[in-house]
């Protein structure tokens, strides 16, 4: 029987995936208002960073930073393990580049492929705080089934093949690979520091550096724009807070369920959340088909299969 803490961690990761679907909807509504997808990423990551900043007025979070600094100096944690937030910044930057060229559906499929494939290797390497996990046939099958579920759900919306899709697809695949590593390293940092708020803040710090740098590059190229309006609905400004909760949940839960299950449950939550949001919106409700629902169910089955495989291991 699955232990209660492990079950709670799995449920929390799934809920985090649902929140990521809500974040995507919020950022997607904000981008046309601000006029620049990278600027939207700066708001999403930057607002989350600012929300956590006042926590360091208390002694506890500052003490955790000292603990982590000591862990770095004594090589308990290598320096690269603190850089997980770079993947989040690259995700926002990649979406601004790849989605207009390849479409949301193809980018999502490549992201999931990168996440699930890399998660198997990350779990096997023992980078995550839960220790090494074997690459069993059941775990590989669960990862493959998740990709099948995503293809079923979004496949009809994938555009026609063409050479112009190769680079956007590779970019999404690469970022997906890094996201699995980020989950493992955030978990390690959180185990040493013992404070998910500090772990998340460090994560957002590096992510903010990436998106600000990307915007400056666009500005030098004459492609960046400043906001021309601010009249988005209130919920469109909540992307940063939703991202905070997602990163914090994964940093804590990965120790119990492993990187692969975090990735699979996160994908299932994102698809399930997107399905509910589409059904709730009269404008997007007609786009929900039987294959969409079937794809979401397949990803849920795959995640449960991965959970059972991890329990047996």
General description of the model:
The chain is an all-alpha fold and 313 residues long. It contains 10 helices and no strands. The model has no long low-confidence stretch (mean pLDDT 84).
Features:
10 helices, globular, 313 residues, single chain, mainly alpha
Distance N to C terminus: 13 Å
Rg, please? 19 Å
Largest sheet: none
Order of secondary-structure elements:
HHHHHHHHHH
What's the total count of β strands? 0
How would you state the average pLDDT, rounded?
84
Helix tally equals 10
Strand percentage lies at under 5%
Secondary structural class:
mainly alpha
Low-confidence stretches: none
Shape annotation:
globular
**Helical proportion, percent range:** over 70%
What is the topological layout?
Elements: H1 4-34, H2 37-52, H3 59-73, H4 85-102, H5 104-125, H6 137-154, H7 166-193, H8 196-220, H9 239-280, H10 290-312
Helix pairs in contact: 1-2, 1-9, 2-4, 2-8, 2-9, 4-5, 4-7, 4-8, 5-6, 5-7, 5-9, 6-9, 6-10, 7-8, 7-9, 8-9, 9-10
Short account of what is shown:
The protein is mainly alpha-helical. The chain contains 10 helices and no strands.
């Amino acid at each position: 029987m699955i232990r209660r803490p492990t079950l709670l961690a799995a449920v929390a990761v799934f809920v985090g995936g649902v929140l990521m679907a809500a974040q995507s909807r919020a950022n997607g509504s904000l981008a046309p208002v601000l006029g620049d997808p990278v600027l939207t990423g700066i708001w999403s990551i930057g607002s989350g960073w600012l929300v956590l900043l006042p926590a360091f007025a208390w002694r506890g979070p500052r003490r955790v930073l000292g603990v982590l600094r000591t862990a770095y100096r004594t090589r308990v944690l290598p320096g690269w393990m603190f850089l997980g937030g770079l993947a989040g910044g690259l995700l926002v930057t990649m979406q601004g580049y790849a989605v207009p060229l390849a479409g949301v559906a193809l980018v999502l499929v490549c992201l999931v492929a990168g996440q699930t494939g890399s998660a198997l290797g990350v779990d096997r390497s023992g980078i995550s705080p839960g220790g090494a996990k074997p690459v069993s046939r059941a775990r590989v099958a669960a990862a493959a089934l998740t990709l099948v579920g995503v293809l079923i759900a979004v496949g009809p919306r994938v555009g026609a093949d063409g050479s112009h899709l190769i680079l956007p697809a590779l970019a999404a695949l690469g970022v997906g690979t890094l996201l699995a590593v980020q989950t493992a390293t955030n978990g390690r940092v959180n185990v040493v520091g013992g404070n998910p708020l500090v772990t998340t803040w460090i994560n957002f710090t590096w992510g903010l550096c990436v998106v600000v740098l990307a915007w400056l590059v666009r500005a030098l190229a004459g492609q960046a724009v400043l906001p021309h309006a601010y009249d988005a609905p209130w919920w469109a400004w909540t992307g940063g807070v939703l991202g905070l909760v997602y990163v914090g949940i994964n940093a804590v839960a990965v120790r119990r369920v492993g990187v692969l299950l975090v990735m699979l449950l996160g994908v299932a939550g994102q698809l399930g959340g997107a399905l509910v949001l589409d059904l709730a919106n009269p404008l997007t409700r007609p786009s929900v088909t039987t294959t969409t629902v079937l794809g979401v169910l397949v990803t849920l089955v795959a995640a449960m299969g991965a959970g059972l495989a991890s329990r047996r291991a």
